[in-house]
Amino acid sequence: MAEESHTKLEYIEFVDMAYIDTGYIPGDNTAFEFEAAFNMGAQCWYGSISTVPFEYSRFHGGAEAASHRICIYTNQGGNKNVISKRSDGEFHTYYISKSLCRLDEIESSADLSIPQLSLYIGNRNSERVNSLITYTMNRCRYAKIYENDELVRHYIPALKNGTYCMYEQIQGKYYYNAAGVGYITGG
User: CA spacing 20 to 30 A to 180: which of 73, 128, 136, 148?
Assistant: First the structure.
């Protein structure tokens, strides 16, 4: 493992379309956990994106602008069950797997399709930007990826050489804004 040479942060903020690509392709036994806080008006998502814009059925957790709620979609296709809470700007814990989703203490069985797309951390919704949606900042304290209940990735906020990023503790690697737009800051 690489030697750490960064400053640990409490959180990082993703502004506009900034996001981190973990490069990790989820499978049927993958679970994705993260702790995040969203602005009231944020429309933003953590996790893999769908190839179809606005199809929130694939490993998604985030915030909806129109309904002012934070949520996880637990079923794919036309029957989209949702775990949700009122958006309050506070940190909440998301856990998303193929068969179980949890938002803080609220739990629901799930039937998610697992795409062959890498998991993202940050403001990522679809493959195109829609001018009607505002991508505003959200904060992340950590993100974890599990395979068969074993922790395989653990991302924490860091500041390395003046650049905000996520440090993956198991591999000892740094991950930076992959969007080419927006920016990442932290605190």
Answer: 73
